[in-house]
Amino acid sequence: MIPSDDALLRFNKALKSYFKKIYYNNLENKKLIQIRDKLLPKLMSGEIDVSKVEI
Questions:
Q1: Integer Cα distance of 51 and 54 in angstroms
Q2: What is the pTM of this model?
Q3: How many helices (H) and strands (E) does the chain have?
């Protein structure tokens, strides 16, 4: 069964924002992984001290 053009347009319109969100979440995850990979060794070695950081 092949959906009509109208059905495809409605489907795409309904899901476009979800796919866009997934795309941007993946980009953010890649950036966060890079930050983690740079900071974690420095935190573990004591090069960066966070003992006085207030949350």
A1: 9
A2: 0.70
A3: 1, 0
